[in-house]
């Protein structure tokens, strides 16, 4: 775990700052709007008021990493949107108003990508993260007999977006893979066949994603990639929850010791572990 070198609200305006541009779904969302208050020292998320509109019952992993587990002043532009898929044309979200990662990247391209005076990021002082796939797989694992081919289609779409980010100057990328949502209370209410199908789909998607990441880095000069293995982190705790302060692997709600806040999302105490894991991955960089 990285030390809490700088804490939320304690940094002077003259401190060198780094920029984090985040894309994803409800596991990451805080409710940021591009046309409202932007991140500044002392208010590193801009809007809404910290910790934002999360799906954790409190601060989420990105909240913790921005405000506590870092080695620098981080200003975070969090485009993540609850329910997001990579592209709604490939996998429909639960509502048509949900902003896919395609929409989120377009928001960035239409605003901060041009490095305006209020967001003077550079290739060196910026990190771009993406945690996506949970809804893509959860909403489609049962629809196709050829999951490997469809996973490739999804990842082609995702990495086309990542290429667009590279083309405007992004060089540092953090990828977070799909956790074992087959073990979520939502899926435990389904039959064993459904759980096995989703598990196999997740493993294939994550495996292909790792290869796509390697190929992307090899094909684009100056790229640095980081990977936090969310699947392994979740599995470690779910296999021995009491060792990490949770009552069991299946309870959900707002009781002390619950791992899940509802049938699909983890509690804020669980997100502390995710934040620490990401911080470890980024250790040694400027973050």
TrEMBL record:
SUPFAM superfamilies, per the entry: SGNH hydrolase
Region forming the signal peptide: 1-16
CDD domains: fatty_acyltransferase_like
InterPro entries with a match to the protein in the record: GDSL, GDSL_Est/Lipase, SGNH_hydro_sf
Keywords of the record: Hydrolase, Signal
Domain of life: Eukaryota
GO molecular function, one term: hydrolase activity, acting on ester bonds
UniProt-recorded name of the protein: Carbohydrate esterase family 16 protein
